[in-house]
Structures are given as structure tokens and as C-alpha cells.
């Protein structure tokens, strides 16, 4: 399979103190890592693409580690998500190649994460943005952690590129009060509850 050709890495962190309600002493932090790489399948239909997932694993681990470093380590992480924007010469299925390398990288470095990593993907032009879904790392039904973070880059993805994203958060939405399963009620049996 082709080697990864990284053009650019973008990291960002939001610190959210309030959403119109009381100011929190400790902000919610949402961080994203976005890797802009060459799409080795751009411009043609390639029937065998699964091998590229193995090539993406080191990139996933690097990006996940960057997020952990930015947010203060695995013990601080409560939410995560992943996504991909594929340039116009690619196809949506190329974004699906990020599911395993991106998701497993975060779960491996977090250690005890049980919930499936939510994901989204699309084909888009230069400057396209993507809302990456976020759920709790151990129980997908924890409503307070249903969130998203917008990612993108002003000059990516070019037609022959893909922009691969990982997102992590340090807690629930600020002022969460929508009910449902709470983080302290997680049983940890199945990644759902």
C-alpha cells in the first residue's frame, strides 16, 4: 500500500466557560486534530483499499497522543469522535478507511474506553467543514456528552487529499440538563449504558 504523505497537521482547542448561564470554574475543553494527507486512490476507482487502514494506524496514534497531550492526559478525557473529509477526486468510501485506525488509536491510548467512537464523513471541496459527533468514551447513551465539534482547514482538502479528524473532550456540555443517563450512572457492561 502507499505510504502516508502528510501535508499538514492542524490542532485546535476550545475552552468553554458558559453558554449563557453561570460561568464554570473549570471549562469544558474540546480539542481536534486534523491531518491533511494525499489520497492515494484519488481520481480512480480502486477495488482493494482495505490495506490502507493498516498504513493509517501510526497516524491515528500520533493524532490521539497529540490530543491527550493538549488536554492533560487520558484521565481527563470523557468524550470522543472522528471524521473525514474527502477531496472531490475521491469517494466517500475512502473516508470509511479512517474508522478503524482513528477509533482504535483513541481507544488504545485511553485504555478503558468501551463505547464505539462516533463518526461522520463526506466528500467536500477546499475549505469544507465537518461537524464531528462526540459521545461519552464508556457509554454511548450518556446524553450530557452528546456533542459535536466543527473541524476544517481553509486550504484543504484539495481534490486529491483527505482530511482526517479526531476529537476529544474533557466533560459534558456546559450547562447540560437534558436528563437521561448520567455519567455517574454508567454500568460499563456494553459500551452503551
How many angstroms does the end-to-end distance come to? 39 Å
CATH class value: Alpha Beta
Classify the fold: give the CATH topology.
60s Ribosomal Protein L30, Chain: A
For the record, the CATH architecture stands as 2-Layer Sandwich
CATH superfamily: BB2672
Task: Please supply descriptive tags for the structure shown above.
193 residues, 7-stranded mixed beta sheet, Amino acid synthesis, 60s Ribosomal Protein L30, Chain: A, 7 strands, alpha+beta, 30% strand
Describe this structure in words.
The mean pLDDT is 94. Strands 1, 2, 3, 4, 5, 6 and 7 form a seven-stranded mixed beta sheet that branches. Helix 1 crosses helix 3 (99-110). The chain has a single domain (6-185), classed as BB2672 (60s Ribosomal Protein L30, Chain: A, 2-Layer Sandwich), CATH 3.30.1330. The chain has 193 residues and is an alpha+beta fold. Helices cover 20% and strands 30% of the residues. It holds the Pfam family AA_synth. InterPro entries: AA_synth_put (IPR009569), BB2672 (IPR035936). This is Amino acid synthesis.
